[in-house]
Amino acid sequence: MTLKPLKGQHHVSAITADAKRNYDFYTKILGMRLVKKTVNQDDTSVYHLFYADERGTPGTDLTFFEIPRAGQTYGGRNAITGTSLRVPSDASLQYWKERFKKHGVDYDDITTDTGRQTLAFRDFEGQRLILVSDENDTGVAAGCPWDKSPVPQEHGIVGLGPVMLTVGNMEAMMKILKDVLGYRESRSYNSLGHETRVFETGEGGTGAEVHVVERSDLPRERPGRGSVHHVAFRVENEEELNKWVELVNQLKIPNSGFVERYYFKSLYFREPNGILFELATDGPGFESDEPFETLGESLALPPYFEDKREEIEAKLKPLETKE
């Protein structure tokens, strides 16, 4: 069985306790487009919000499940501890530093890791985010910012960058990344006194990297609001995904099997440290049930939930997303 290499990040899904403030932060401050307002398909009583480039190009989606009672996150190991967002240039980071200052966003100084400038910051719930400059990037293509964004297009967020993982067992993580998922180790760098190892797939570059640090000295992370639920990696199509389902079953890795998400098809499994990975297809995409011009303005439900729309809407707190 021949598998094509994974193409990079597909999306990252995180947790918020407040959909309204989340929407305001990611659209009005970060300038991303809400391309889909839907529900968590495993719990339709809560929102699932997708922020991305102008049309939700695979590799640009940062998504949130609203869990209103989510407690505080206690950071630690065996978790996704940083989500990067790509911006076009080093000059963009200077723009963002001033924007964060103006809007009272908590941020750090600009730093350089292996020739790439980055700017770490937190949202209102402490979500750990990093802007990464694509100034010298030659890997996976970026998306295109929405032209109606409050952020100028030349500085707009163009996709997901490297995903940061903190684990207790590096060897176990490497076996999954390299031996199962086909990643290659490209380099390492020192971050806060600890070696961070970089793995890449496909065309490489900011949109196809996973950065892993081993911290067995830390307690396990206790997730809550401001934490990341899972990371998804790009698979070209449904035929390829079925091959991945076959492979993980052959390797006896506990998994979800094929899952229909309507906007894409998925496969979920946990690596040995307990971090949830998803493999997701590039299509069909977010314009399968809404036109490009009005993406994210109304509550979108997959066809298999449409007959329960009234019941689902009754449980949701109204969220106005039409500007």
UniProtKB/TrEMBL annotation:
Xref: Gene3D superfamilies: 2,3-Dihydroxybiphenyl 1,2-Dioxygenase, domain 1
Pfam family, one: Glyoxalase
Residue span, VOC domain: 8-134, 159-282
Protein name, UniProt field: Glyoxalase family protein
Organism: Salirhabdus euzebyi
Organism phylogeny: Bacteria, Bacillati, Bacillota, Bacilli, Bacillales
